[in-house]
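so my prof wants the structure for this chain in the tokens format not the other one, which i didnt know existed until like an hour ago. anyway here's the sequence
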Amino acid sequence: MKQIVVPLVGGSPSIITAKYAIYLAKILQVKVTAIYVIDEKAIQELLRSRVFVEIEAREYEIDMEQQARLFMQRVKTLAENKKVELDSLILKGEVHTEIAEKARELGAELLVMGDLKEVLSWKEAFYNEGERIFRESPCPVVIVKNPQEVERLYKEL
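here's what i got, hopefully its the right format
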């Protein structure tokens, strides 16, 4: 194994996911690529539904890019602290499509992602990005659960 991909969305659940990917990378002695996708489809929906006007949508997108850069720097520091090689990518587009395409392009042998939310209907499953990433992944997927155990494993590295 040479490459692990970890899609991230920001926030503490993504930190747990990143820590587990870093843990696996350290144990397996492989590289990690963290991917943050700015959901352009969601921004377009906000424009279409008139929640935003064009200039607000652009400002929102700039804010999202800035937040993504800060978050990815935090994840990079977590990897550096454990002496794990981590590349970070910030992409734009449809989240599940970008993740699957980049994992395929990188030749990822494993995708590590956060816990899937409970799906209450088929329609919800169809539109849930986590579910779509899971189903469209070109490689095996590890779903991260039990944050306390992940914290323990990460600290022991």
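also thought this was worth mentioning. The chain has a mean pLDDT of 90.
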